[in-house]
Design brief:
Layout (H helix, E strand, L loop, with lengths): L11 E2 L7 E6 L1 H4 L5 E7 L3 E2 L8 E8 L1 E6 L2 E6 L3 E4 L5 E5 L5 E8 L4 H4 L4
Antiparallel strand pairs: 1-2, 2-3, 3-10, 4-9, 5-8, 5-10, 6-7, 6-9
Length: 121
């Protein structure tokens, strides 16, 4: 009988050059699922990434610390125990300008891909 669940014990560690830990548990890199991606992330103090305009909805839940989001023109700080949904085709920049690391979960629907995130240079 085929199992009706998948237990993820070895997430894909996405290679980064900015000190951020990205562990994809489900998504294109782990199980070729293009419908959803679920990743555990830890952003170090001082981390930031370029603006992007993704073709997916992104849900973020903060486990520890806080994260700054610049959404279109508005700055929003999300803290431990809070969550946010950024709708697809919204210009967004994520960063951690704070003194402590930020640990969070990110869920993208459909799944995150480098081709659909549309990061600016």
């Amino acid at each position: 009988m085929k199992k009706k669940y998948t237990l993820q014990k070895t997430p894909f560690i996405v290679p980064t050059t900015d000190g951020k830990l990205i562990e994809e548990h489900f998504g294109m890199a782990t199980d070729q699922n293009n419908k959803i991606s679920i990743a555990h992330m830890v952003a170090p103090p001082g981390w930031s990434e370029p603006f992007q305009t993704p073709e997916f909805d992104e849900y973020t839940y903060i486990i520890k610390g806080k994260k700054k989001c610049v959404i279109e023109e508005e700055e929003v700080i999300i803290k431990a125990g809070e969550s946010i949904k950024i709708e697809k085709n919204t210009k967004i920049q994520y960063s951690n300008p704070f003194d402590e690391e930020c640990e969070y979960l990110a869920i993208c629907i459909p799944a995150f891909t480098i081709e659909t995130v549309h990061r600016e240079n």
